[in-house]
Design goal:
Length: 205
């Protein structure tokens, strides 16, 4: 067989030579009667094949060993365990955070109640604003608005007490009943007069 001149030709010549050697070893392994001779021939054949592959530029994929397979399995399970632990830690952290926020809210709510009792409207407004901020609400209270609300609530509770004493319907029922009638009608006026009476307002319709 004629080979090309130069490096490529020499390379091909050596590959062919090694291939012949490999084929000889293959036949030798088949003809050998003893197991030792057969094994040695197979080993030599493998070494020659490796040299051929190296010269040809063929990269053979290695089969993963049992040890590497076991390592991969262990690593996979470990990874899963770590992932599960991380998610648990995250949930615990979020739970703690929620608890802290809830505790802070209750503390602030108590402060609001005490401020309302003592009629410290400025303090009440500031504390309520803190609660709103934590809840993500943009609503802001001022001393004036808190005072007006307190006044309204006080008059409502006073009217509710008066309604209770009169043994008639309570304030909520009266307001609901008033809404069922047309404004300015006789029934509307009658209910409004009852409401005014409970509020302590002298005006009658």
């Amino acid at each position: 067989m004629a080979y090309a001149k130069g490096k490529a030709g020499r390379k091909q010549k050596s590959i062919d030579k090694l291939a012949k050697k490999r084929d000889k070893l293959k036949t030798k392994a088949k003809t050998r009667k003893t197991g030792v001779g057969r094994t040695l021939a197979k080993m030599k054949q493998k070494r020659v094949q490796k040299r051929i592959n190296k010269k040809s530029g063929i990269k053979r994929k290695r089969k993963p060993s049992l040890l590497s397979k076991a390592t991969k399995k262990v690593y996979g399970t470990a990874k899963k365990v770590v992932k599960g632990a991380k998610s648990k830690i995250k949930s615990v952290k979020s739970g703690i955070k929620k608890k802290r926020v809830a505790n802070a809210k209750t503390k602030l709510a108590k402060k609001v109640k005490t401020a309302a009792k003592k009629k410290q409207y400025g303090k009440q407004a500031r504390t309520q604003n803190k609660i709103n901020k934590r809840l993500g609400s943009k609503k802001r209270h001022t001393k004036k608005s808190v005072k007006a609300t307190a006044k309204k609530n006080a008059s409502w509770s006073k009217a509710s007490k008066a309604a209770k004493k009169s043994d008639g319907p309570n304030m909520s029922t009266l307001v609901k009943a008033r809404g069922m009638h047309k404004k300015g009608s006789a029934q509307y006026k009658k209910i409004q007069n009852q409401i005014n009476k409970h509020y302590g307002v002298k005006k009658r319709h």
